[in-house]
């Protein structure tokens, strides 16, 4: 799968560069209408449509999030005209059929039906579903949209070595994380948080059927973007390989970067390489990068007013207090970073005392909030969901303004980025480790990936291990 994704990324980058070129403009300008449509849908239009599809999901979920947090959706659904009518759910049932992609599958089924007959077409269609073809193509949709969109914003298309053959091998967890972290995992977690918040804060008034019809395709997209690389990774749920992957992941995260250190050897080198597109971007590209990062502040603004500790207050001081918490966290992080540099040698004991004092202070703050202001556990988890995206947004803005912040607080930004990657890696690795405990999961995955090879009597274990049958 990695080779296919590399190829898709390379082609998407190329189409992004073509979109920005004068040649495409001139061709489209002088073509007649039908040739222009043919040219559009066979070149850059396919990737533009993929990007628009993903952007539509973002607009839809952020719009729903706003409606839930503002109370607008509750007022609409609780109105008598909506409550007494089933027309909305009936319309959503019909629309959900299109969300499943049935309309897009119809031409393929009809073509196979004409060439090989209805029974063969139906059989091929069922086999494709059993082989998780929708998961694969949904994942590749994210690949096209990410690399095409990033090239449109910043340029920076580059050659990606894809090889000439498809080799069957197990890709390590760190390799999958390097390749798909920014293109799929971050976006999948973002959409997943939106869906969770939509369910939590809207679950008290909307029906389960309505929620299912609206969001099931979104959940399918989230699961595909987060776990498709591991589902289509040979021996991805083998316990011993999972243990080896975790060891390799920890080693990769801990090694410091530097001159001559390759991205596959160190997290720092990989993180620096991931920002190459920002080094050569234009002022407009930097501004758009910052504007897009501002969407992560919406979570905090919407959630803090729904906390029990806020006591239904709509005062701006509630939002300001949430930012005060972020400022305190940044100051503490900076104090620890500066203390590590200055309190060395004989002053190492003072540095430990400083860390102990800060730890006690950070522990005392939530205790006081629990006892005095009525903070509860649900508020604590909600605050984490609110502040975590805000921190990621600040991190993206800091990366965009690297020339101005590199001498001021770049080491702190790097440590925050490392912490976020640790958390994302742990969230992704945990379900993989749990499934790897059960041997039948690995066997089921192998049967799923190599079903035709099994039917032909090939020895899959030797193929995966790279051994020859003597």
From TrEMBL:
Record's superkingdom?
Eukaryota
Residue spans crossing the bilayer: 37-61, 210-232, 284-304, 316-336, 356-374, 380-401, 422-440
Q: Does the keyword GTP-binding apply?
A: no
Establish whether keyword Transmembrane is in the entry: yes
Record-level GO BP terms: (1->3)-beta-D-glucan biosynthetic process
CC terms in the record's Gene Ontology section: 1,3-beta-D-glucan synthase complex; plasma membrane
Q: What keywords appear on the UniProt entry? A: Membrane, Transmembrane, Transmembrane helix
Q: From the UniProt record, which GO molecular function terms apply?
A: 1,3-beta-D-glucan synthase activity
Q: Which residues form the Glycosyl transferase domain?
A: 1-287
| UniProt-recorded name of the protein | Glycosyl transferase 48 domain-containing protein
The organism of origin for this protein: Rubroshorea leprosula
